[in-house]
Amino acid sequence: MIRTNLFYPLIAGFVMLTLTACQSSEPGQQQSSQPAKKVDVITLAPQTVTLKNTLPARAVAYRKAEVRPQVNGIIDKRLFEEGGEVKAGQRLYQIEPALYEAQLANAKAQLASAKAALKTAQAKEERYKGLMSDNAISKQDYDDALSTFEQAEAEIKVQQAAVKTAETNLGYTHVVAPISGTIGKSAFTEGALVTAQQSNVLATINQLDPIYIDISQPSKQLLALRKRVISRELNDLSAPKVNVNLEDGTEYDQVGTLQFAGVDVDTTTGDVVVRAIIPNPNHLLLPGMFLRATIIEGELKDVILAPQKGVSFDKNGSASALVITADNKVEKRDVTVGQAFGENWLVKSGLNVGDQVIVEGLQSIGPEANVSIDKNTLQTANTGA
């Protein structure tokens, strides 16, 4: 009975020692049993990117002239083919000239009468001038003769102006093309009565080669471009180039050049009209046609591009990335990103050349975690342009 009572305490003590030893060894065993997480990284390299901006656009004629009559009359003839090419100065319409021919003839007759009166007045002035020197007539008589002569000279100028006006009006019966280009349909036919300076146009001429492209660009983007030029991030010595896509999605085979940006911002849309000029030798682009224009603003050299799948954003829109330190630990970096280039973000701050940005295995790691690199991809120069 006494031996039994001594045996039980010994067993209980042994069990407690065994449990204590096991418990003390578990943390160390767990620590050593967790392997470093494997991740894929991209090692950042300096890049050169081309800044591009694709925006809606509309084609606008390089020059446009609305043909209107400058005298009243009946259209005798239409002298052009609708939809064809015309040259500046080419006759387009003939207005009935008879009335204006008569007006010119009358003006010439009045001029001839004024010239005859001038000769008479001049002869009388010269004769009275000699008589006055001999005191044969009074000074008043000479003054009257001199005044008549001067009035005759003035009348000559009036009648010469009348002849010129009549000749001009007769010339306006020939309605000519003010510019070279493609002429549209005629709004009036032979026999129609037209009036000078009427609101309705006879026809419209468009010069289509080259042609303008009006691009609607948000003022915020234009402001960013100007800031980059001012800060010398971009070279402003050459005008930005413009590529055009047609309504069917195909790319136009000519390259345009940016001309200027408007000075007013549309208060309803916040857009600024940017105008480009582009060759149009085959007249494929027509006024009013909707297009997609890509403005090639310039190049940024030695910039950092971070893969989009390696950058995360919080609910406030702040961006961050996880990078690997020299001792294979995870470090969280706050970054500032700008424009997207393909599958990359343009990094303004927070990352440097040589940083290893984690792109795979992000779900199972956090800051300060031990990791090992499974796949390391080195960025090649000039990617993402």
Automatic annotation (TrEMBL):
GO cellular component, one term: plasma membrane
Family (UniProt): Belongs to the membrane fusion protein (MFP) (TC 8.A.1) family.
Record protein name field: Efflux RND transporter periplasmic adaptor subunit
Gene Ontology molecular function: any one: transmembrane transporter activity
InterPro entries: MdtA-like_b-barrel (IPR058626), MdtA-like_BSH (IPR058625), MdtA-like_C (IPR058627), MdtA-like_HH (IPR058624), RND_pump_MFP (IPR006143)
Keyword Coiled coil: yes
Pfam families: Beta-barrel_RND, BSH_RND, HH_MFP_RND, RND-MFP_C
UniProt superkingdom: Bacteria
Domain named Multidrug resistance protein MdtA-like C-terminal permuted SH3: residues: 302-363
Domain Multidrug resistance protein MdtA-like barrel-sandwich hybrid per the UniProt entry, residue ranges: 63-205
Organism: Methylophaga aminisulfidivorans
Record bears the keyword Kinase: no
Keywords carried by this UniProt record: Coiled coil, Signal
Residue ranges constituting the Multidrug resistance protein MdtA-like beta-barrel domain according to the UniProt record: 210-298
Annotated ranges, domain Multidrug resistance protein MdtA-like alpha-helical hairpin: 103-173
Localization, UniProt: Cell inner membrane
NCBIfam families, sorted: RND_mfp
GO biological process, one term: response to antibiotic
Coiled coil: 104-169
Topological relation to the membrane, as annotated: Lipid-anchor
Main location: membrane
Signal peptide: 1-24
